[in-house]
Amino acid sequence: MPGRFVKDVWVTVLVTAVLIWIMPLLIGTYTLTVLVIYGMLGLSLGLIWGFGGILCFGQTAFFGLGAYTYAIAAINIGESTLPMILAILVPAVFAALLGAMMFYGRLTDVYLGVITLVVTLILFKFMNSTAGPQYVIGKARMGGFNGIPGFPTLNVPGDPDTYIWGDPYFYVCAVLLALVFLLVSALLRSSFGRVAVGIRENETRASLMGYDVRARKTVLFAIGAAIAGLAGALFANWAEIVTPSLFSLGQSAEIIIWCIVGGLGTRLGPIVGAAGLAYLKFLLGQQAVVDNTLITGLILVLFVLFLPKGIVPALVGLWKASFGRRPLGRIHQARRMRGGERANG
Amino acid sequence: MDLAFVILVEMLYAVASLILIGAGLAVVFGMMKVINLAHGEFMMMGGYATITAVNLGVNIFVAMLVVAPLVVGLIGLVVERLVIRHLYGRLVDTMLATWGLSLFFIGLVTMIFGNTTTGISTPIPGFAVGDYQINGYNFFVILAAIALLIGVLLVLRTTRAGLVARGAMQRSDMAAALGYSPDRIYMATFFCGSALSGLAGAVFAPLVGLVPTSGGAYIAKAFITVIAGGPSLVAGLLSSAGVFGIVSQIFTFAISPVIGEVALLVAAVILLRIMPQGITGRFFKGRL
Amino acid sequence: MVEVVLETVALTMRFGGVVAADNVNFKLRARELRCLIGPNGAGKSTFFKCVAGLQTPTEGQVFMRGTETTGWMPHQIASMGVGIKTQTPNVMDELSVFENIWLAARRFHPVAEANRKAQEMVERLALGPIARSTLGRLAHGERQRVELGLVAVGDPWLVLLDEPAAGMSAEDVERMTGIIHELNRTAAIVIVEHDMQFIRSIAKTVTVFHQGAVLMEDHVDRVMSDATVRNVYLGKKA
């Protein structure tokens, strides 16, 4: 088992290195940076939904909270290291509280969807209403609809005068995404991750085995929120402004679409879905014939109807079908066949 | 005294609007266990249908009460045939697909009408109560909500279609076993639900500046009113709209409209936490 | 005197006006095997669910090894070392046989130990050839066997089984009987069952439920020949 993980690390490092080298030759690093950030946001929902079975309609709430936390903390503190850490912790704690409330109340599916959606809306409405001068946290004015501009962006840790921006900022984001990806991989290989998948498969059985489903779901939910929060902080640094639109329903829908299109239950799917669709949206934004939202919506409907498993699992299946006939593959297949026969017999 | 009257009217108005907003979704959810997240956009399209009809010279009440429900009902029919019917029994998938539809309709309406605010004036003038000004249209909204509730109740109680519908609500497999095609029941239900959404959107059209994204303002309220109401159609709508309408108005008067909205949402979260089955799942079991 | 591992005192469960379990006093000693029988709706499954923590009784108490567990969550009861198998197979369909059993073993053991335990259990139940197949692809009898395996792998001292033989072939039932006997060497077992043949082959003491209450409790042979029990089963008035 550890051997496999070491291989995972090497493959991830190699692929990341190659992509960091090649991608900037194709797409500008400014656009690439936000694609990477969206990839991380997609991964955060992909983890809790695809592996934990928790369908959160308000993943963007944690994204927005991370961004706002960073902006407010950066204005008050200046040096960016602590604000970055806070931007991970605040959404995680918020999610832990919200998750505890939901999971200990034994709310499932639809009700979970309603509550996460409503909480996101509350944040959206609240942030929009904070235009007045009385809404101040330390030195930071909330700014209502206009958001918070002009906060200090990411600097080299310990050196507040050396900002990280442009190409280097892209490298930072890309490396962070690779790190988060590896952490998620490690988590899923750990006992915690395997139990989480077990809970997704059958909650009753997991609790009859003696696992506290409520606590475990809450923890997983908080981990997802922490990743979304990090993505939010990175987004704030990229956009150099945070606005309430981070909490909008449209943004929430998009994260879900990324996961569906990319493929649930895979680590790569949500990242690919996020980056791919965000880039498609960027390209579509440059034409005015067809409305952008219309296409996004159409994609979601078509995927739910025709390819509910998403692109990555479909491609993996295709790959196995066309290249899976090497000797090794045949043995695997034969073994599976035998298993199947026994099952039927 | 005048203030009390004004507050009473405002409360009733708040409750009535929640009933109107939730009705279409409640019919579809109650009968088909389908959550139509494009409900807000159905309302938005009802508004556009009304405004377009009025601009073409149709009487405003005809536009609101006939044109809008028909147009949106037909749109709903197409949606049901093309998308929803492939997804029955898959609650989460229908939610996702209808969310996609909601985005699709926002885009479509933006392409047709442009991303600008349109509106029509209210057909009923306001009047003064003491020192306060009351919007006369509020009474129309309240009447519309009452009429709608009574209408739904009568259809369910007295007609043959209502009987089949009640049966299907309880056990769709039994309805099928008795020879009623669930396919057609669902089709008819979705048409009615969409028509109600269109009607609600039409009734609100004179009150709001309509933009293609207007639906977003409705969907969350509709969603929580219906879910918090629970399985009974009329009793559920009435009770949850009552609770939320009154809570939000109290906070609106005491603090500000925004806080009123937030209070409504917070009340919904708390209510669902205490009663995951909705109000009627707990108290008025088995009623309509 | 052998230790009492499971005891209920005046356990009562009401659903609205229906009394599903009525004042049930029940005692089970260590390494005892007890079958609960009774016609449909007699309250044995309700009783089972109240004991397993799947439902909270309206009144009365449940004790396990002297600790009161009334109203506990299933995971708390399972964590004490109680193995539970519900009526419908509760397994993780997308996971393999090995993973299912491993997850159950991991709850009570560190990773390496869990690997070993799970492997052992797979061999003990002759699941080797299908260890890597996902549960969703298995036949009913195999799924039941896997579920019994993941109950057994936690080394429970009390096992609660709801209709373990339902829908199984004769061969599968025989294998199941073997496993249950093996479990019974270390654990007390409660079996809720309909299948009279299976009960005859496995039971010593039988508790008969009727209309939510305990009708009689005796050796299987005496229960089977009892006129009242026969009447209850054939629907005559008791």
Descriptive notes:
The complex is a heterotrimer of chains A (345), B (288) and C (238). The C terminus of chain A is likely disordered. Chain A contains 14 helices and six strands. Chain A is 74% helix and 4% strand. Chain A has two domains: 243 residues, no CATH class; 26 residues. Chain B is 75% helix and 2% strand. Chain B is globular and about 60 Å long. Chain B starts with a helix and ends in a 6-residue tail after the last helix. In chain C, the strands form two sheets. A six-stranded mixed β-sheet of chain C has the order 6-7-8-3-9-10, sandwiched between helices. Chain C has a four-stranded antiparallel β-sheet with strand order 2-1-4-5, with helices on one face. Chains in contact: A-B, A-C. At the A-B interface, helix 5, helix 10 and helix 12 of A face helix 4, helix 9 and helix 11 of B.
Tell me the layout of helices and strands.
The complex is a heterotrimer of chains A (345), B (288) and C (238).
Chain A: H1 2-26, H2 29-51, H3 59-77, H4 81-104, H5 109-128, E1 136-137, E2 140-141, E3 148-149, E4 155-156, E5 159-163, H6 167-189, H7 191-201, H8 203-208, H9 213-239, E6 241-242, H10 249-262, H11 268-284, H12 292-306, H13 311-323, H14 327-344
Antiparallel strand pairs in A: 1-2, 3-6, 4-5
Helix pairs in contact in A: 1-6, 2-6, 2-9, 2-10, 2-11, 3-4, 3-9, 4-9, 6-7, 10-11, 10-12
Chain B: H1 2-32, H2 39-55, H3 60-82, H4 91-113, E1 127-129, E2 132-134, H5 137-158, H6 160-170, H7 172-177, H8 182-204, H9 215-229, H10 233-254, H11 257-274, H12 279-282
Antiparallel strand pairs in B: 1-2
Helix pairs in contact in B: 1-5, 1-8, 1-9, 1-10, 2-3, 2-4, 2-8, 2-9, 3-8, 5-6, 9-10, 9-11, 10-11
Chain C: E1 4-15, E2 18-29, E3 33-37, H1 44-52, E4 59-64, E5 67-68, H2 74-79, E6 82-85, H3 97-106, H4 111-124, H5 140-152, E7 158-162, H6 170-184, E8 188-192, H7 196-202, E9 205-210, E10 213-219, H8 220-225, H9 227-234
Helix pairs in contact in C: 3-4, 3-5, 5-6
